[in-house]
Amino acid sequence: MRALDLLAPLFFSRPTASAARVEEELVERLRRGESSAIAEVYDEHYATVRAFARRLTGDDAAAEDLVHDVFVSLPSAAQRFRGESSLKTFLVSIAVNHARHHLRSAARRRVALERLGREPLPDAPNPERDVSRAALARALDRALDQLPVPQRVAFVLCEVEDRSAREAAEIMGVPEATARTRLFHAKQKLRALLDEEESR
Amino acid sequence: MKDDMLRAATRALREEADASQGRQAETRARVLATLKSRRARKLAAIRVFVPLAAVLVGSVAWAEATHRLPSVWYELKHDLGFGREEEEAPATAPAIPPAGRPVAKNAAPAVTGEAPADKAEMPAEKAAEPEVPPPSEAPAAPAETVGAPTVVAPKIVAAASSPKPSAPTEAAAIEAPEAAPAPRVDTDDALYRAAHQAHFVTRDPAGALAAWDAYLRAAPRGRFAPEAHYNRALCLVRLGRTAEAERTLELFASGSFGGYRKAEAKALLDAMRGPTP
User: Fold this and answer.
1) Does A134 contact B12 at a Cβ distance shorter than 8 Å?
2) What is the largest CA-CA distance in chain A?
3) What pLDDT score does B103 carry?
4) How confident is the model at residue A124 (pLDDT cuts 50, 70, 90)?
């Protein structure tokens, strides 16, 4: 038992400490605005940020634009990074802060596409299932467009991304109770909106 | 039922998002290009603004060290059109020029205790009058170096020393330097000499006022412009035009001409306004 206590730091703590040190160094380079550091963070976290952006906006182009804005603003945002959360969480919180404008443009694009009747057809092996899935996703996107941004963010973080209320609160920079309240109201409104759409 | 639908829609949204293809390389290139152009813009701004700031700071320091800051500030204010309302109201009065370098030989006389309480008679003003000799006597005056047009000078003396100068005489006095731009310095000196004569020798306030106006019109930024303004204010006091005199004296008292005649102007203003209750 004693030997295990002595050996445990060698196997567990060291990698964690070194990972934290690596991240600290990376953040320091980000603060200096080093392009190589930004490229490094981009390669590591693009998938996470892009997935969140796509789920939040429901639009490919808006998601890419949001990702672009997140990484472009990273050197200045890194100045206020205190290391209380992981870099991944911090990047998602930057995306939340920049989302408002992109959500508006994504909603406008959706409305315009629907007005023109141009709905992209999925080219998949099971087209029927994909069409119904796409229709459902679009219905939810339309309903999400009618929510206030904080409620939309809370819903995407907790329900679509399966994050805990604590994590969502950390990303949004609000108390956990506020995050829960936002999620509750968001779900209530979405149910009503989906029901309304179904009855139409 | 509603819950099921919301759950199904959420799942559909997640799957749709996961199925969509990201443009990782394209966005990466876009991010790096944006950062590069931002950095280039920042560098360009630094290259432009740092020298500008250095020049500005250097100029201000130089102006402060040579005691020219108040006059430069006044000039800037005047050129930008601020503080024009502070200037003299009469249309005949010239625009107040920027205060030049306060002339060293105009050492301020002691005014303490000399300022009178009576508005009509101002013994202090005599003490505060700048006793500047005419420019021909001043060592700095380049009167002899430039060919002096002897025709102009007597005309000015006549205009300045006459008790009630007529408009055509004044006009002639103004036109003279315009007609002959080359001996301008000499013309200004002649005008100054005439005004000095009317003010200190003949002691004719009306004539001196006209002569100072003529000098200021001819050389609004001249070497003796601050003195001309101050003496003009004294003439106005003597003529009983206290409101106009006060406006000019306030400029001196507030430091618009640097430290030149500041104390005297303050004392004179106090004397004109009488004891405060």
Assistant:
1) yes
2) 72
3) 41
4) low
Confidence category of residue A123, pLDDT binned at 50, 70, 90:
low
Question: What is the rounded CA–CA span in Å between residue B264 and residue B114?
Answer: 10
Max Cα separation, chain B? 111
CA distance A73 to chain B (A): 9
For residue B24, list chain A residues with Cβ-Cβ distance below 8 A: 46, 50
- Asked if A72 and B31 come within 8 Å (Cβ–Cβ), the reply is yes
Chain B nearest CA to A174, separation (Å): 24
Look at residue A91 in the predicted model and tell me its pLDDT. Answer: 93
CB pairs under 8 A between A and B: 94
Name the range with the highest mean pLDDT among A38-47, A104-113, B19-28.
A38-47
Which domains can be identified in chain A, with CATH numbers?
23-118 (1.10.1740.10), 125-200 (1.10.10.10)
Tell me whether residues A64 and B12 touch, CB distance under 8 A.
Answer: no
Q: What percent of chain A lies above the pLDDT cut of 70?
A: 84
pLDDT grade for A118, boundaries at 50, 70 and 90? low
Q: Is B187 inside a domain boundary?
A: yes
Distance of CA B170 to the CA centre of its chain: 25
A35 within 8 A of B35, measured Cβ to Cβ? yes
Asked if the Cβ–Cβ distance from A194 to B6 is below 8 Å, we say yes
User: Is residue B210 over pLDDT 70?
Assistant: yes
The domain of B105 spans 99-273
Query: CB–CB of A77/A94 below 8 Å?
Result: yes
With CA atoms as reference, the chain B residue closest to A57 would be B17
What pLDDT does residue B23 have?
86
Radius of gyration of chain B (CA): 32
Task: Decide if B94 is inside a domain.
Answer: no
Q: Would you state the structure tokens that stand for residue B222, as one six-digit string?
A: 């001249």
CB contact (8 A) between residue B35 and residue A160 = no
Number of domains in chain B: 1
